[in-house]
Specification:
D-Maltodextrin-Binding Protein, domain 2; 6-stranded mixed sheet; 11 helices; disordered N terminus
Length: 324
């Protein structure tokens, strides 16, 4: 299968935010936004929008947001009586700023981008995290890979090389990799030539094609997903580093919504949006193992303290993106 080369852009986080938000804002403006006076005023108890907008960044295995989140939209609409719209964002920075502006009511974040949103006052309140089973403890890993035949065997070999990252606010695609490089006394901004690929799949494919000397992504993308999709073959890349366990990717609701609606949405995510509940209610599409959800099982509860490890890595790396 032919691969499309990524744009080789050494991004500045602020520029990414500005450009991505221009696209996000235009689409979100078609729904109710803060300027119309429709969103709720959070603890002030103001009116809520007629349309709930959900923002998500597409991944290699989940590129059609409307289709992948159709069951979630259906259940939310049934339970709340409101419409649901989708916003396919181009970066986590865009999602953060859209939620801060009240243009997005529910946002699917990475662990790092959630911490940035929460700690920068974007008004993000946890709903839960995407779980593969009802007993899924959550968490995943970041890995570094190099092309087949590369002489690089560990992160110290990345010094002075072209290195692919995912996004300035990506947990496994930038923050934890930055910590790993710093342990090798390599500045992630100056000790390498950073290239932001825009997606975990794009980062791995750029490594395989030799556009980057090495790159970072989730472990599942490097070892499973691209091979399963046929875009990579076993042996096209070699994994040379693995991070410590990273907490799971959460979904957060905007605190601009009324407390009543926020409570209702949290209840929907934790008690109705899972395979067991959908089967029990008779709403499960029996032709799909996941009942039409964008994950194998559903959502589980999580506390903000679970992300304190992310904050600790921010303290270690002093990443500019931590203070976005």
């Amino acid at each position: 299968m032919a691969r499309t080369p990524i744009k080789m852009i050494a991004c500045l986080a602020g520029l990414v935010t500005a450009l991505a938000l221009a696209g996000c804002g235009a689409s979100a403006a078609q729904t109710n936004d803060a300027s119309t006076g429709n969103p709720g005023s959070g603890s002030g108890g103001g009116s809520d929008p007629d349309t709930i907008t959900i923002a998500h960044i597409p991944s290699e295995e989940n590129t059609d947001i409307d289709q992948s989140y159709a069951k979630i939209a259906e259940v939310i609409e049934q339970e709340t009586g409101k419409k649901v719209a989708f916003q396919q964002a181009t970066s986590y920075a865009a999602v953060i700023e859209a939620q801060r502006a009240g243009k997005v009511q529910i946002a699917a974040y990475g662990p790092f981008s959630y911490v940035v949103a929460k700690d920068s006052g974007a008004g993000a309140e946890l709903l839960g995290y995407s779980a593969e089973s009802s007993q899924d403890p959550g968490g995943y890993y970041s890995v570094a890979s190099v092309p087949k035949g590369s002489k690089i065997t560990d992160l110290s070999g990345f010094k002075g090389k072209k290195v692919c990252f995912v996004d300035p606010t990506s947990t496994s695609g930038y923050l934890f990799p930055s910590a790993g490089l710093l342990k090798e006394h390599i500045d992630p901004k100056k000790g390498v030539t950073p290239i932001f690929a825009g997606g975990h799949d794009a980062s791995v494919l750029a490594v395989a094609d030799g556009q980057c000397d090495g790159g970072f992504s989730t472990e599942s993308m490097a070892k499973e997903e691209l091979i399963k999709s046929g875009q990579l073959k076993q042996g096209d890349i070699k994994v040379i580093w693995k991070s410590e366990l990273i907490p799971p990717s959460p979904v957060a609701v905007s605190t601009k919504l009324s407390p009543e609606l926020r409570k209702q949405l949290k209840n929907i995510f934790l008690t109705k949006l899972n395979v067991d509940a959908l089967k029990k209610s008779g709403e499960c599409d029996t032709s799909k193992d996941n009942c039409g959800l964008p994950m194998k099982w559903g959502y589980l509860s999580i506390e903000d303290s679970a992300y304190d490890g992310i904050r600790a890595v921010c303290d270690t790396t002093k990443s500019d993106s931590c203070n976005a």
